């Protein structure tokens, strides 16, 4: 069994056989052009659900406006340093708006 790539039929010789019910099994079905089986569809759905649930790495440090926004997105109460940074940001923003008007 093979697959078509740029108009040519290629042979598939996998190094390891992917087991059905896993993400690699689902990918193997796609590569070979075969219909995906129910265990592979379920495994792929579980993989996607777990991937969506992973929390992003928090790169914004506290005592900055992005740190304040990170707290808000996470549904947390912002720490004192982040609230002070947010107040500074808003004060500067209002001053710039007044100067422009």
Based on the model shown, name its key terms.
101 residues; mainly alpha; 2 domains; 2 strands
Percent strand:
5-15%
Structural class by sheet pairing and helices: mainly alpha
SSE string? EEHHHH
> Whole-number average pLDDT?
86
Strand order of the largest sheet: 1-2
| Oligomeric state of shown chains | single chain
Shape: elongated
Percent in helix: 55-70%
**Can you count the helices?**
4
Q: Can you count the beta strands?
A: 2
The radius of gyration computed from the alpha-carbon positions, rounded to a whole number of angstroms, is: 25 Å
Sheet with most strands:
2 strands, antiparallel
What is the terminal-to-terminal distance? 71 Å
Number of separate structural domains: 2
Uncertain regions spanning at least 5 consecutive residues:
none
Account of the 3D structure:
By secondary structure, the chain is mainly alpha-helical. The protein has four helices and two strands, in the order ββαααα. It has a two-stranded antiparallel ribbon. Strand 1 (2-5) and strand 2 (8-11) form a beta hairpin. Helix 1 (23-32) crosses helix 2 and helix 3 packs across helix 4. It starts with a strand and ends with a helix.
């Amino acid at each position: 069994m093979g697959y078509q790539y740029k108009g040519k039929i290629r042979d598939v010789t996998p190094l390891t056989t992917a087991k059905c019910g896993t993400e690699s099994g689902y990918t193997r079905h796609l590569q070979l052009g075969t219909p995906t089986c129910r265990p592979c569809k379920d495994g792929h759905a579980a993989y996607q659900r777990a991937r969506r649930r992973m929390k992003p790495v928090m790169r914004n440090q506290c005592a900055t406006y992005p740190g304040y926004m990170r707290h808000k997105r996470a549904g947390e109460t912002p720490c004192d340093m982040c609230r002070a940074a947010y107040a500074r940001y808003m004060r500067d923003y209002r001053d710039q708006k007044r100067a422009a008007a």
